[in-house]
Amino acid sequence: MEMLRRSSVFAAEVMEVFDRSPTDKELVSQAKALCRDYINSRLIRAGVSWSKPEYNVPVPGGRLAEVSTILLRLGDELEYIRPNVYRNIARQLNISLHSETVVTDAFLAVAAQIFTAGITWGKVVSLYAVAAGLAVDCVRHAQPAMVHTIVDCLGEFVRKTLVTWLKRRGGWTSQDVW
């Protein structure tokens, strides 16, 4: 009887590991890793140099790397369809890139606007495209430190606005999502 009880406890612990949904912290961390990868891709495509080592680290392997590839591909399509929306973000917003507060406030305002009518995966891709467009602007205008601010800002927006929605869908790496 004791052996059966121990094996049942073990089985329950194993199932808990497999069935658990990602934590808020994990979802935000993954969102930021995806953002760094997306931004790095766009900086390379724009031909601007970016030498911050923490931003050259690729998204960890496995399913998150697959999600990053898909996110980038979807972003390519979105940016191809509407190139004027995702380029020259700072000029469109009429903001100076010399103030962290200005960049943060502008990014959060755009993010909030994107999701005013609800959350969809397409809008999530759009959020990443805006972040990358703004990051390209920052690097081109000699403000590369602002890229870190944009990544953190996106993470905070995900924490406050998208985490619950992401959890209901199984997180970034759910097989059903992408």
TrEMBL record:
Keywords annotated in UniProt: Apoptosis, Membrane, Transmembrane, Transmembrane helix
SMART domains, sorted: BCL (SM00337)
Record domain Bcl-2 Bcl-2 homology region 1-3: where: 71-172
Lineage top rank: taxon: Eukaryota
Family that this chain belongs to: Belongs to the Bcl-2 family.
UniProt protein name: Bcl-2-related ovarian killer protein isoform X2
Pfam families: Bcl-2
Primary gene name: BOK
InterPro entries attached to this UniProt entry: Bcl-2-like_sf, Bcl-2_BH1-3, Bcl-2_fam, Bcl2-like
Membrane topology: Single-pass membrane protein
UniProt entry tagged with the keyword Cell division: no
GO CC terms: mitochondrial outer membrane
Keyword Transmembrane: yes
UniProt-annotated location(s): Membrane
Gene Ontology BP term (one): positive regulation of apoptotic process
